[in-house]
């Protein structure tokens, strides 16, 4: 799964790679991003417009899902295209969630040991996401997950679906809705690029944006 991540790279470092226009506004570095908060995302409304960066609510609940309907933060790659809850968003409302890494907890230790997982070269990551209009008119999103690969598998059995650079443009294409075509043009990054290390249990308490000490090796 993915229930906590960090985004501290400067805006141009990830926005330019996703094809979004450069803006002068600086984003506040966040070293401990929890669910149920506004997070930075990239989406594209039409082929005539470039992708743009905006804030989406991390929690997916379509407008038509009333009352106590679930508000998942993740959607499984194996079923996102066919699930009644997610398939409309998968076809038309895909987004990217930029991150510098994410946290998982090793359940084999007592207490559970948190790890920070990222690229070996420390380049930003792009999680595949979907979004929907919520009951209040705002947009909520979920991060797509897949079975853990490479080094990440040593910590947890699931991980975010991280797209390679060539997949960013087709993933954001609102006119690309065929499931088989998407499978052929969208790919996750090489598992060999992923590394991880144990970090302080301070990350267990998502109070504010945190600081760089949260990702230092414990």
TrEMBL record:
Biological process annotations from GO = protein-DNA covalent cross-linking repair; proteolysis
Per UniProt, what is one GO molecular function of this protein? Answer: peptidase activity
Q: What is its EC number?
A: 3.4.-.-
Q: Check the record and name the SUPFAM superfamilies matching this protein.
A: BB1717-like (SSF143081)
Under the heading InterPro entries, the entry gives:
SRAP (IPR003738), SRAP-like (IPR036590)
Keywords from UniProt, A to Z, are: Covalent protein-DNA linkage, DNA damage, DNA-binding, Hydrolase, Lyase, Protease
Query: Which family, according to UniProt?
Result: Belongs to the SOS response-associated peptidase family.
Q: Which PANTHER family match?
A: ABASIC SITE PROCESSING PROTEIN HMCES, DC12-RELATED
What is this protein called in UniProt?
Answer: Abasic site processing protein
User: What species does this protein belong to?
Assistant: Modicisalibacter ilicicola DSM 19980
Taxonomy-wise, where does this protein's organism fall, top ranks first? Bacteria, Pseudomonadati, Pseudomonadota, Gammaproteobacteria, Oceanospirillales
């Amino acid at each position: 799964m993915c229930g906590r991540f960090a985004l501290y790279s400067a805006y141009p470092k990830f926005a330019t790679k996703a094809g979004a226009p450069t803006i002068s506004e600086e984003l506040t570095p966040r070293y401990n991003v929890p669910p149920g908060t506004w997070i930075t995302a990239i989406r594209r409304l039409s082929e005539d417009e470039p992708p743009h960066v905006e804030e989406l609510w991390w929690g997916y609940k379509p407008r038509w899902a009333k009352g106590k309907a679930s508000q998942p933060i993740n959607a499984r790659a194996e079923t996102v295209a066919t699930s009644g809850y997610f398939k409309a968003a998968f076809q038309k409302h895909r987004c990217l969630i930029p991150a510098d890494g994410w946290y998982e907890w090793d359940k084999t230790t007592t207490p559970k040991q948190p790890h920070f997982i990222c690229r070996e070269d420390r380049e930003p990551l792009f999680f595949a996401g979907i979004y929907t209009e919520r009951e209040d008119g705002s947009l909520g999103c979920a991060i797509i997950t897949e079975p853990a690969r490479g080094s990440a598998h040593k910590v947890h059995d699931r991980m975010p679906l991280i797209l390679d650079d060539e997949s960013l443009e087709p993933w954001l294409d609102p006119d690309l809705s065929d499931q088989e075509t998407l499978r052929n043009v969208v790919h996750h990054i090489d598992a060999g690029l992923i590394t991880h290390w144990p970090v302080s249990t301070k990350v267990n308490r998502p109070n504010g944006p945190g600081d760089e000490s949260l990702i230092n090796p414990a």
